[in-house]
Specification:
By secondary structure, the chain is of the alpha/beta class. The protein folds into 2 domains: about 5-215 and about 415-425, Rossmann fold (3-Layer(aba) Sandwich), CATH 3.40.50; about 225-410, 3-Layer(aba) Sandwich (Rossmann fold). About 45% of the residues lie in helices and about 15% in strands. It has 19 helices and 14 strands. It has helices at about 5-35, 45, 65-80, 95-105, 120-130, 145-150, 165-170, 175-180, 195-200, 225-230, 250-265, 280-290, 300, 320-325, 345-350, 365-370, 380-390, 395-410, 415-425; strands spanning about 60, 90, 110-115, 130-135, 155-160, 185-190, 210, 240-245, 270-275, 295, 310, 330, 350-355, 375. The strands form 2 sheets. Strands 3-2-1-4-5-6-7 form a 7-stranded parallel sheet, with helices on both faces. Strands 10-11-9-8-12-13-14 form a 7-stranded parallel sheet. Strand 1, helix 3 and strand 2 (about 90) form a beta-alpha-beta unit. The two termini are about 30 Å apart. About 45% of the residues are buried.
């Protein structure tokens, strides 16, 4: 097949730039390593250098971090039940994503970090693992990786695909290259019609794109009963409890200020605090102690005491059941231009949900939740605080939001079934 000369030129320029930037990746890993020690480890995987043979061919799934791994979990679990003969290789970019893979599946799947998108690393990765099918979650559009799959006849499906208006603008400089790479994939399974439209604007053919819904609706929350029983053995059900979840560094002072206001209104109030990134665990604990509050942590104390005012959830994989212990949940990443985090988890676990205004990563979900009466959005930290305090003092309003949220989650399911139907014919033949 004759290669497109424009594609070859664009790929050459893009790859040359990435090769020039390779030394920067080392500085980046070192810089990240000072904040998260795991970034100092397993560097060889970042450059697709593997000490052992790749083993038999696999189905490869890429999920950049924790949120994407969680979204992929229903698909992986369903396919592992249907096809236990398939070998799975799952890649992430972040150490927290790697830890989530191991927490969900242990050694039942193989895990490595996704290599940088330079041709040599991509070729070594694909030749080592020899995937017969590639499943990529959400918005991981790496041109050399997509072209490499096409050149080896590996079908690629972009699942739970999302593309915000902001991200679409961010691809302007690479529009010609990314558009060509997109047209190599078998299907873009978009979260919504708006996401599908933006992928077409980015360069995908209309026939490639299907709006199948959001897999996050199909994440089955854990049974909250064991956590609730253990929690309420120490914390009376009548106590005022709220949770600040997935907060970022720039939001931490806002959480402190809100909790100070909550305590003035509800002196018995307990804040459950789950920072987004593990390096912030100790920092928020110190920040709370600096207010002369009684502070406990999940890793050290396991449970709040009667006088605990702030309980830091400094473990991984336990946030969702803790949502069930709170009456109101503030979801972070939304008071700054992060774009928000998963709003469905607290809704599914029975908490009234409050968030800030920056929600471009969850635009469709937040719109549906707000229309259903399951979400309060504050335009800034002060308004978020007012919403949290107001809901903590208004049980009927909370209960109405909880009912609306749980109904929305139940009615939104179905993307998993449609996704399995889509990729079923592309699964490798049984051995």
């Amino acid at each position: 097949m004759r290669k497109d000369p424009v594609e070859l030129m664009l790929r050459g320029l893009y790859s040359a730039l990435l090769y020039l930037l390779l030394p920067v990746t080392i500085y980046h890993l070192v810089w990240r390593g000072f904040r998260v020690r795991e970034y100092f480890k397993r560097w060889s995987e970042r450059y697709a250098s593997y000490p052992e043979s790749g083993g038999r061919p696999c189905v490869w799934l890429h999920a950049v971090s924790v949120g994407e791994v969680n979204a992929a979990a229903p698909v992986v679990d369903a396919l592992r039940r249907q096809r236990p003969d398939i070998r799975w290789v799952i890649t992430t970019i972040t150490p927290t994503g790697s830890q989530r893979v191991r927490a969900l599946w242990g050694e039942a799947v193989d895990h490595v970090y996704l290599p940088y998108d330079v041709p040599g690393s991509v070729a070594r990765f694909l030749e080592h693992f020899r995937p017969s099918l590639a499943l990529i979650l959400e918005t991981e559009l790496w041109p050399n990786l997509l072209f490499g799959c096409r050149d080896r006849s590996i079908p690629v499906y972009i699942l739970n695909a999302r593309l915000s208006a902001r991200s679409l603008k961010g691809y302007r400089m690479l529009h010609a290259l990314v558009g060509r790479a997109l047209r190599t994939v078998a299907c873009v399974a978009a979260q919504s019609k708006e996401d599908a439209r933006r992928f077409v604007m980015l360069g995908a053919d209309t026939g490639q794109v299907r709006a199948l819904g959001n897999l996050k609706f199909d994440i089955r929350p854990p049974d909250p009963a064991p956590m609730l029983a253990a929690f309420h053995a120490r914390v009376p059900a009548t106590r005022t409890v709220w949770i600040a979840a997935s907060t970022h560094e720039e939001e931490e002072q806002a959480v402190i200020d809100i909790h100070a206001r909550v305590l003035r209104r509800h002196p018995d109030a307990l804040l459950l605090w789950a920072p987004r990134h593990p390096p912030r665990f100790a920092k928020v604990e110190a920040l709370a102690r600096a207010q002369d509050w009684q502070v406990a942590t999940r890793s050290a104390g396991q449970w709040p005491a009667a006088d605990t005012q702030v309980f830091v959830i400094d473990t991984l994989g336990e946030l969702v059941p803790f949502f069930a212990c709170a009456q109101v949940a503030f979801v972070g990443g939304s008071l700054q231009a992060i774009g928000g985090h998963n709003l469905l988890e607290p809704a599914a676990m029975g908490a009234a949900v409050v968030t800030g205004p920056h929600l471009h990563n969850f635009a469709e979900i937040s719109r549906h939740m707000k229309e259903a009466g399951a979400l309060r959005i504050g335009e800034d930290a002060a308004v978020v605080g007012e919403e949290v305090i107001g809901l903590l003092g208004d049980a009927p309003a909370r209960q109405q939001m909880v009912r609306a949220g749980m109904e929305l989650v139940a009615n939104g399911r179905g993307a998993l079934e449609r996704t399995l139907e889509l990729i079923g014919p592309a699964l490798p033949a049984r051995e």
